[in-house]
Structure formats: C-alpha cells, structure tokens
Design brief:
Elements lengths: L2 H4 L3 E10 L2 E11 L4 E5 L6 H9 L6 E6 L2 E2 L10 E4 L11 H11 L4 H14 L15 H13 L5 E5 L7 H18 L2 E6 L2 H7 L2 E6 L2 E6 L1 H6 L4 H6 L4 E3 L16 E4 L4 E5 L11 E10 L3 E8 L2 E8 L10 E6 L1 E6 L2 E6 L11
Parallel strand pairs: 3-8, 3-9, 6-7, 7-8
Antiparallel strand pairs: 1-2, 1-4, 4-5, 9-10, 11-12, 12-18, 13-17, 14-15, 14-17, 15-16, 18-19
Helix pairs in contact: 3-4, 3-5
C-alpha cells in the first residue's frame, strides 16, 4: 500500500451507479481522513444518499472501488465493513425497549451478556438517556428517538458512522440542539463520520469538510469556509449561501464587464445599505436604491432594495437607524461573483483600495 493511500480512512475511486436510465453517481472520487466529520450536501436527486448506501454495502456500484482503512470492500458484506448506519426515519424496532434496540447489534454478534449490559449503559449515558432503557420508541420524543438510533449504530464500535438526513424528522428547535450534540459527540469519539443533508446551514455548522454533489457528480470539496469564500463552480456559488443572480452587472458603478457571456451572483454581505446622509466612507461610490422590504432575521435585518431593475438583499444591524419600505437609500456593492463559463471569478468594486477589500 502506498503512503498516499494510508492517509485516508475511506476512499471511493471512480464510482458509478445507475438505476435504469438514471445515472445516480458518475465517476465519484472521495478521500476522507480518519476521524473527520464530513457532509454530503446536495439537492434531492443529487446522488448523495446513493453514495452513502454504496459505502454501507446496501447498494453495489456498476464500476469503481470502495476502500475502507486501505482494504477493498466491494465484495465485502455490509455487516462486515465496520460501518454504523443511522437512518432518516430512526428505524427503531417499535416492539423493543430502548435497551433492546441498543443491544440488538451486539446480540447479533453474540457478545457476552455482561459486555452487552455494560455497553448499553455506557451508551445511554453518552446520549443522555439514562433511565429511559425500559421505554418503547413511541414513548420517546423525536430527539430522544434519534439519540437512541445513534446509540444503536454506535453499539458495535464501528470505525465509520454513516447518517442519512439524521435531523430531517425532528422539529427545528430540537434539530439545532442535536446538531451541536452530534458534533461534540463525534469529536470526542474521534469516529470517522459522513452525514447526508440538503440543508446548507446544517452542513456548514456541523461538518469539518463538505462534499457538494449535483446530478451524481462532485462539484467541489472543502471546508465550510473554503466553499463559502471560494466557490469554484456556478452551482456551488449559488447553492452555498444566499445569492441573487444579476445580469448586466456592469451597470453598477465601478464594475467592468469580464465578457459578453458572463453573468454575476451577489450575496448580501457584498451589499451595504445606508440611510441618506449616514454613509461617510463610500459617498462617491454608492448609488441610490429604493427599499422594497425589511425583514427581521433575529440578529440583523435583511433589507431588500431595488436598484437598476434588480432587487438586492443587504443586511443592517437591529440597532442601526430604521429604514422604511419605499425609502430612498444609498447602496454600495463591494463585490460580484462573476460566472464565466464553468468557473467563478471574484470581481471587486474598483473604487476600493486593495487594503480595503472585504474578504
């Protein structure tokens, strides 16, 4: 085995999978280091769950290789791959108690009774569900059921944990709590983990690394910050973060066209909205717009402004002077992400000195 292969705990090499005429994955290559928490992010039908099921041994690829800890596992049954799987719908056995659900995989492996008892109680403590071992799934909250599903997957000590939309069936408040809990748990356990999600906020908040998928292919891989700050494809630029498509972006002051066939993407953090007379620094560079909507977002206000026939979004602090719908305001655009074919080019307002550019 080469030293390069030893760097990764999981590798997919040129994996292809079709369902009839539908290409679910196309030449997918993935390398994940041991102990990393990785998100497979994409819209419905992007191929992310197919990849998860292929890794778990629940599906077989038409071509390509799957390696776990340096070993080719294409022909290895899923039960022998050292993989734990958490399903979107919990998939707990309704007729079994919490204790028996967690113990299930250990009993299948014919572990000693004392070992099973110790392991189940260890996991109950880990998931903060001590005292619930005699309850049945229908006696638990959604968050508790998902924690029990995590514990059942962890019981056999897998070295690879796979989670398919693990928070989709849980209400918003509990979902936020479970995100933080999952990240802390996996960080403490140092178990290599992959979770599927279509929620970009979830992926950005939880994952060390994100793999963005689209139509069965990988668009880009990187840390949340890398994907957000340096998108490499038009799909990633629009999928990660809020964005507004803008044609004829050269209509805005201090921006020149990068080509006749180019369009642009604008994010709220690239836009500053000022009341008339409030802006001192960018007085000469700002343009006039009209406020179309003001939306309270909790920690800030989203201001939607019409300028050059386009409605843009910018943010203002909740303690900033109030702007009203219909009010004329000054709008300063710092940057566009310009789509040039299949690549993304950052285009900054030319009135900014280099040291003033917002990164």
């Amino acid at each position: 085995m080469s030293m390069e292969n030893k760097r990764y705990y999981l590798e997919l090499r040129g994996v292809n999978k079709k369902y009839g005429n539908f290409q679910a994955s196309r030449n997918v290559n993935i390398q994940i280091e041991k102990g990393r928490l990785v998100a497979l992010l994409g819209a419905s039908g992007s191929g992310k769950t197919t990849i998860l099921r292929i890794i778990a041994g629940l599906e077989s690829p038409e071509s390509g290789e799957i390696l776990i800890d340096g070993k080719l596992v294409n022909n290895t049954p899923g039960s022998e791959r050292g993989v734990g799987f958490v399903f979107q719908s919990y998939a707990l056995f309704r007729y079994m108690t919490v204790y028996d659900n967690i113990a299930f995989g250990l009993r299948v492996k014919k572990k000693p009774r004392n070992y099973i008892d110790d392991r189940v109680h260890e996991l109950l403590k880990l998931i903060d569900c001590e005292g619930l071992e005699k309850r049945y799934p229908n006696q638990l909250s959604g968050g508790q059921r998902q924690r029990v599903a995590f514990a059942r997957a962890l019981a056999p000590n897998p070295q690879l944990l796979l989670l398919d939309e693990p928070f989709a069936a849980i209400d918003a408040k509990i979902r936020l709590e479970l995100r933080a809990w999952l990240r802390e748990m996996i960080t403490n356990l140092q178990i290599t983990s992959i979770f599927v999600t279509h929620d970009q906020d979830e992926a950005i908040e939880v994952a060390d690394e994100i793999i963005v998928m689209n139509h069965g292919e990988i668009e880009q891989t990187g840390s949340p910050r890398e994907l957000y700050s340096h998108p490499q494809t038009p799909f990633v630029a629009q999928f990660i973060g809020a964005s507004t498509p803008v044609e004829n972006y050269q209509r805005f002051r201090f921006f020149q066209s990068l080509g006749d066939d180019t369009t642009a993407i604008l994010r709220p953090e690239f836009v500053s909205v000022f009341k008339k007379g409030e802006n001192k620094k960018y007085t000469e560079s700002a343009e006039e717009g009209v406020v179309e909507d003001v939306i309270f977002r909790g920690s800030n206000l989203e201001i939607r402004v019409r300028i050059h026939g386009v409605v843009l979004s910018g943010n203002r602090g909740i303690n900033d002077p109030v702007v009203e719908i219909g009010e004329k305001v000054d709008v300063f655009v710092y940057r566009f992400l310009v789509v040039d074919g299949k690549k993304i080019v950052r285009l900054d307002n030319s009135s900014l000195r280099e040291e003033s550019i917002i990164i």
